Amino acid sequence: MASAAFEHVDKIYPNGQQAVFDCSLAVGDGELAVFVGPSGCGKSTLLRILAGLETASGGSVRIGDRIVNDLSPQERNVAMVFQDYALYPFMSVRKNLEFPLKMRRLARPEVQRRIAWAAEVLDLAPLLERLPKQLSGGQRQRVAMGRALVREPTVSLLDEPLSNLDAKLRVEVRAEIADIQRRTRTTMIYVTHDQTEAMTLGHRIAVLNAGRLQQFAAPQELYDRPANTFVAGFIGNPPMNVVPVRAAADASGVLRVSIGDQVLAVTSPRLAAAVGARERALSAGVRPEALALTADARSGDVLHAAVEHVEYLGHETLVHVQIGTGADALRLVARMPGMQTLGKEAPIRFRVDPAAWHLFDEDGAALRTDP
């Protein structure tokens, strides 16, 4: 096992398209890192560059202490698990596991030791003599994982390995992958477009957009302290509400925030100091669960809205609301516990804990509010 790092990596294709821009990040030894982002954001390209299947146009790629830019995929000793499993259909599970070891001309006792280990770790012993067509999707995924792990790679790379599974099986196999990584302490990089998968699996998550790294942090930090409006709007289900505002701090240190045709008084010295006395055009973000119902109609920190649409999910209700009317109307989503009975266009009022507000500058970067 080893660490893996990208240092100022670019990828430009012959047609001039740039898929990765100046990417720098380091995955620690024994860490499970997840690369997440929308289609075409560069996450799979980074994985293929690390594996040696693509060549970086600039920058360095490290595995452990070695720069591996000029090494072949075989010399890098990485293993890849693809979304289509890539199992040999005419070979039994045992022979699928043995194949990469025989290609490396390992001695028979060593091959048997590794197969026995994989069978125990992945609970494959009852399946060893079956063909892939006789396995469920989850079982095939475990075999694909086993074929990668028996190589004892320095880094395991998983490229959207669950995309072919149904929703229930995805949850089960996701838990299995996390358990396998914990028990084997394999350095693992997992690529997905599903932010729920990323949040539940990753020790740290790299959020990418249009070839650029937006933030690389632990799940809680991504959720609580998004680096910019893209991360705020991508992480979370539903994502953070982000709306344009104008804001300025008054003489008493209270932040006056204009949202649509309303002005809220947000009592937060931290935010007031960050914004300053001069009115600024900013973006304000608030998580759906931070919008708390209130009966208070007159307080200066209450947000007035109208119900637009309600989604009843049993354990919770998602309430889509509108602030203002016409072309300038703003729309937000509130998460409420249980089944809430709310009629369309009904007036509704929210209070937001001042600590729950996020502010972003004109370029979308999180406004620095550290003490």
Write up this protein.
By secondary structure, the protein is an alpha+beta fold. The chain has 2 domains: 4-234, Rossmann fold; 241-360, Nucleic acid-binding proteins (OB fold (Dihydrolipoamide Acetyltransferase, E2P), Beta Barrel), CATH 2.40.50.140. The chain has helices at 43-51, 73-76, 93-103, 108-121, 137-149, 167-184, 195-201, 219-224, 229-234, 269-275; strands at residues 4-12, 18-27, 32-36, 58-63, 66-67, 78-81, 155-159, 188-192, 204-209, 212-217, 241-249, 255-259, 262-266, 280-286, 291-293, 302-312, 316-323, 330-337, 347-352, 358-360. Helix 6 links the parallel strand 7 and strand 8 (188-192).
Short description, anyone?
The protein has helices at residues 43-51, 73-76, 93-103, 108-121, 137-149, 167-184, 195-201, 219-224, 229-234, 269-275; strands spanning 4-12, 18-27, 32-36, 58-63, 66-67, 78-81, 155-159, 188-192, 204-209, 212-217, 241-249, 255-259, 262-266, 280-286, 291-293, 302-312, 316-323, 330-337, 347-352, 358-360. The protein is of the alpha+beta class and 371 residues long. The chain starts with a strand and ends in an 11-residue tail after the last strand.
Task: Give me the secondary-structure topology.
Blueprint: E1 4-12, E2 18-27, E3 32-36, H1 43-51, E4 58-63, E5 66-67, H2 73-76, E6 78-81, H3 93-103, H4 108-121, H5 137-149, E7 155-159, H6 167-184, E8 188-192, H7 195-201, E9 204-209, E10 212-217, H8 219-224, H9 229-234, E11 241-249, E12 255-259, E13 262-266, H10 269-275, E14 280-286, E15 291-293, E16 302-312, E17 316-323, E18 330-337, E19 347-352, E20 358-360
Parallel strand pairs: 3-8, 3-9, 6-7, 7-8
Antiparallel strand pairs: 1-2, 1-4, 4-5, 9-10, 11-12, 11-14, 12-13, 14-20, 15-19, 16-17, 16-19, 17-18
Helix pairs in contact: 3-5, 5-6
